[in-house]
């Protein structure tokens, strides 16, 4: 399975950066886009740089309703109307109506398998509702987060149902739950992670700097 950061605050040469996050999951048989960043132009540009057409994407998973994670959705839907879009059921009626008028909307409340060996945690959190993705591999479970607003404890508890957690990719916001990261093989923290330097210092062997255009094979 191949994970590629499509949208992030940082970028490698040729790719564009912007505030937000998006990650492409390529299983070899299908492509799933987790979050869509803030700006549709940047998102489409970076997909072109990866030689990926929006028409190749079958599913879009939105972690939460903040614009830096769903702002590029319109551009994806303009290019590919035959999409399944997975959102936490807590999304506003307005947003759900807008999405359902242009794609197949799937509301998520509980942990759900959306593709063989790929699960959403279900809706987590109190003030800000958010879902993360869980990828079941022979090496363990990999977690993809948008901002991890519900906290790493909640996310890791859901992930551990499917096996030992091997890695995490995405935004960790201001999390200081450092002990939950100590046994991970991969900590690919990006976007809103405010304690990146501390995490890198604590776990130099597993920490990885990410940005738009960076790929990870798991």
TrEMBL record:
SUPFAM superfamilies: Metallo-hydrolase/oxidoreductase
GO molecular function, one term: transferase activity
Domain Metallo-beta-lactamase stretches: 19-191
Highest taxon above the source species: Archaea
PANTHER family: METALLO-BETA-LACTAMASE SUPERFAMILY PROTEIN (PTHR13754), METALLO-BETA-LACTAMASE SUPERFAMILY PROTEIN (AFU_ORTHOLOGUE AFUA_3G07630) (PTHR13754:SF13)
Protein name from the UniProt record: Metallo-beta-lactamase superfamily protein
Organism expressing this protein natively: Methanohalobium evestigatum (strain ATCC BAA-1072 / DSM 3721 / NBRC 107634 / OCM 161 / Z-7303)
């Amino acid at each position: 399975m191949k994970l590629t950061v499509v949208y992030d605050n940082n970028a490698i040469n040729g790719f564009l950066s912007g505030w937000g996050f998006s990650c492409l999951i390529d299983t070899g048989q299908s492509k799933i886009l987790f979050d869509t960043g803030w700006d549709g132009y940047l998102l489409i540009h970076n997909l072109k740089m990866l030689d990926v057409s929006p028409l190749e994407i079958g599913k879009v998973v939105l972690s939460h309703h903040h614009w830096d994670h769903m702002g590029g959705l319109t551009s994806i839907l303009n290019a590919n109307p035959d999409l399944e879009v997975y959102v936490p059921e807590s999304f506003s009626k307005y947003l759900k109506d807008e999405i359902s008028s242009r794609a197949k909307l799937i509301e998520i409340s509980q942990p759900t398998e959306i593709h063989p060996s790929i699960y959403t945690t279900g809706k987590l959190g109190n003030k800000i509702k958010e879902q993360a993705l869980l990828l079941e591999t022979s090496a363990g479970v990999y977690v993809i987060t948008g901002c991890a607003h519900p906290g790493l404890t909640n996310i890791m508890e859901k992930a551990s149902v499917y096996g030992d957690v091997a890695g995490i990719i995405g935004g960790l916001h201001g999390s200081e739950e450092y002990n939950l990261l100590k046994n991970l093989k991969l900590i690919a923290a990006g976007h809103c992670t405010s304690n990146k330097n501390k995490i890198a210092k604590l776990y130099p062997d597993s920490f990885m700097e990410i940005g738009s255009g960076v790929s990870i094979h798991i």
